[in-house]
Amino acid sequence: MGSAEAWIKRDAEVVWHGFTQMSTYADNEPVVVERAEGRELIDVEGRRYLDAVSSLWVTTLGHRVPELDQAILDQLARVAHSTMLGNGNRVVVELAEALTPLVPVRRPHFLFAADGASAVEQALKIAFQFWANQERPRSAYLAFGDAYHGDTVGSLSLGGGGFGTDVFDPLRFPVLRAPSFAQDPSLDAACAMVDEHRDELAAVVVEPLVQGAAGMLLAPPASFARLAEACEVNDVLLVCDEVATGFGRTGTLFASEQCGVSPDLLCLGKGITGGYLPMSTTVANDRVYEAFLGPDLSSRTFYHGHSYGGNALAAAVARRHLELLADWDVLANVRDRSQQLRRGLERTLGRHPAVAEIRLRGLMGGIELSPPTGGLRWGRRVSGACVRRGVLVRPLGDIVVIMPPLTVTEVETDRIVATVSAAVDEVCTT
User: Got the DSSP string for 115-132?
Assistant: First the structure.
């Protein structure tokens, strides 16, 4: 099989990792995964790591779930993929039918793609053409400070910057920028901007409840209800980006439910297939969808689609995933483990001098560290100390992200708390 060191060397020779400085890739002790069992990843030397980052927020039920494995095998015996451009596929229809009563969107229609950024990009184009189709052109978007919506040019434009994106500023189109959740959790400024710019705004794009990549910045549900009301009163489309918050991560199937919000467009991804296969979807309500209906080959058509949009294997595992979320009462576990995680982190780190704040909604958590000087790389070092103790986490700057699978157990939650606490003590004690 070879040593971890040998595999890291082979990796660095041929692979270019996203969000990774490849000149120092090997120095940061990367884990090269060979297999997995349950909620643990196993590296090429047989070491086990509790996947407390859910493989970048996508894994919901764990790895190698027999029921999800079987769903893929059953579909593989039928067909792996067929185009959805002008044709259909039985399992994709069944998935859309299963999602229809669950999503907080009125009379929904689903446009499938392969990743969250693509779902957001689709929403941007749909919102723009929605107004063009009615001969009421609007081209402005309102987004939030510290927002993150993906890395395509459109989604990058909506984002609040950071992550080294400044180099792409010449490619980004300007948006109206409301304050981040940290600066204005009431979203009052955003509501006022909707009032002021109603005639030019195509849509408001927001991450309901949690700005995930910003470091788990939180705003109360009532704030989003006010924002939705401002959009409705001013006839502005509301786009909810639930790529990260969807499929149970915040304690309800969708964060919009907690806010009492029914968006015009809903972007879903990450957990849709339980972390098995890449899939995303942009969900449109009836008002938006019907604005695109017209004669064949007419200008009202939405000329957009992806080769692998509506992949049959992904649809099959996504459909079975929905059933398991309900059958296993996964949301109850999310709420219970969230309370346990909060109690544990507050007990061990709530008064730690190195910890500025602990933020948690469901099983989306962030521990913000407060290094006394710059350049200490506390987030990276604490995460590395966790990995050496067998718990895999990934930082956002000096924020240690905790995002375990939704089926994480009581014992595993205690293990995460103890590991992170020990890592903070090791790295941050002066």
Answer: SHHHHHHHHHHHHHHHHH
Kindly give the pairing relationship between strand 399-402 and strand 394-396. antiparallel
- Taking alpha carbons only, the member of 336, 337, 344 closest to residue 404 is 337
Dump pLDDT digits (tens) for 30-54: 999 999 999 999 999 999 999 999 9
CATH topology of domain 67-327: Aspartate Aminotransferase; domain 2 (3.40.640)
pLDDT tens digits, 382-409: 999 999 999 999 999 999 999 999 999 9
The residues, any chain, with a CB within 8 Å of residue 161's CB and separated by 6 or more, are: none
Residue 109: how many other CB atoms lie within 10 Å: 17
Helices (H), 285-351: 286-290, 312-327, 330-349
CATH number for the region 31-61+329-428 comes to: 3.90.1150.10
Chain CA centroid to CA 115, Å: 10
Predicted TM-score (pTM) of the model is 0.97
- Tell me what pLDDT residue 287 has: 98
